[in-house]
Design goal:
five-stranded mixed β-sheet, Immunoglobulin-like, 134 residues, mainly beta
Length: 134
């Protein structure tokens, strides 16, 4: 697991990336939030302060391995943004849940609609035609 940057200024974001093969499952842990992820995946994070993220991998042998990485934040953004989805791989007609925890901001919007700073919303998957289909 690696981050595009492990030292950022308050208010900045970075991407955390990983590539693991031959596993039963993988989970990205951000504070108290644990999200199932793919073995070859990435997450953008915008921590309000120095934060440790963990990739938890369950190997084919059933053993669990944690891979932590700390993103150090200089200065204070005075806000925090955490946004995740329960399942990011769904088929048309299936639903997933968007979740967010945004603190110390004036307003939070989801698709142009004002929403609570800490909330969730169930959303359906959409079927999109490939660009070359007719």
């Amino acid at each position: 697991m690696c981050a595009d940057a492990t030292y950022i200024a308050g208010g900045q974001c970075t991407a955390i990336r990983w590539n693991v093969d031959n596993i039963q499952a993988a989970f990205f842990i951000d504070g108290g939030n644990q999200q199932g992820v793919g073995g070859h995946d990435a997450r953008n994070v915008c921590p309000g302060g120095t934060t440790t993220y963990t990739l938890r991998v369950i190997g084919n042998d059933g053993a669990t391995h944690d891979f932590p990485i700390t993103v150090n934040v200089s200065g204070n953004a005075n806000y925090s943004i955490n946004y995740w989805v329960d399942r990011d791989n769904i088929d048309a007609g299936q639903c997933t849940t968007l979740r967010w925890d945004v603190r110390n901001v004036q307003a939070v919007y989801l698709n142009g609609e004002g929403v609570a700073g800490v909330s969730q919303r169930s959303v359906p998957g959409r079927h999109e035609e490939p660009a070359n289909s007719r």
